[in-house]
Design goal:
mainly beta; 7-stranded mixed beta sheet
């Protein structure tokens, strides 16, 4: 999945990443290297939501701006040079720099980190007063 700072919409070409693919009444006009294309197909990306589906496309694109509307996104070029997308399920997706200086999340070799917070009864007792 390409995390694209130049895109204003989300559009995928791989049906294996989506469910509930179906035609809708609206159309999306895509202006790209291949010219002007249109799609009236919609699909559901688990953990993200509804987005456009264009079977003849060459990339699965998430708009950085739209991802930011749903999730917290950070970037630190000095730390690990990747975008971190903080999902609501305590997982962090890492979008790493790939070919041609584009930032992607590899759906085959997923790199996700999780956070688990543990509080013990003993630790809670230390915060109580008599």
């Amino acid at each position: 999945m390409l995390l694209d700072s130049q895109s204003t919409t989300d559009v995928f070409c791989n049906p294996d990443l989506l469910t509930k693919i179906h035609q809708i009444d609206n159309k999306l006009t895509i202006q790209c290297n291949a010219g002007v294309k249109t799609t009236d197909w919609w699909g559901y990306l688990s953990g993200y939501g509804w987005l456009w589906f264009f079977a003849d496309g060459i990339a699965n694109i998430l708009s950085l701006s739209r991802v930011r509307e749903k999730f917290r996104v950070t970037f630190d070029s000095a730390m690990d040079n990747c975008f971190h997308v903080y999902k609501g399920d305590n997982k962090v997706l890492k979008c790493k720099e790939a070919n041609r200086q584009l930032y992607c999340f590899d759906t085959k070799n997923r790199e996700e980190t999780g956070v688990m917070l543990i509080t013990t009864v003993e630790k809670n007792k230390t915060k109580l007063s008599a």
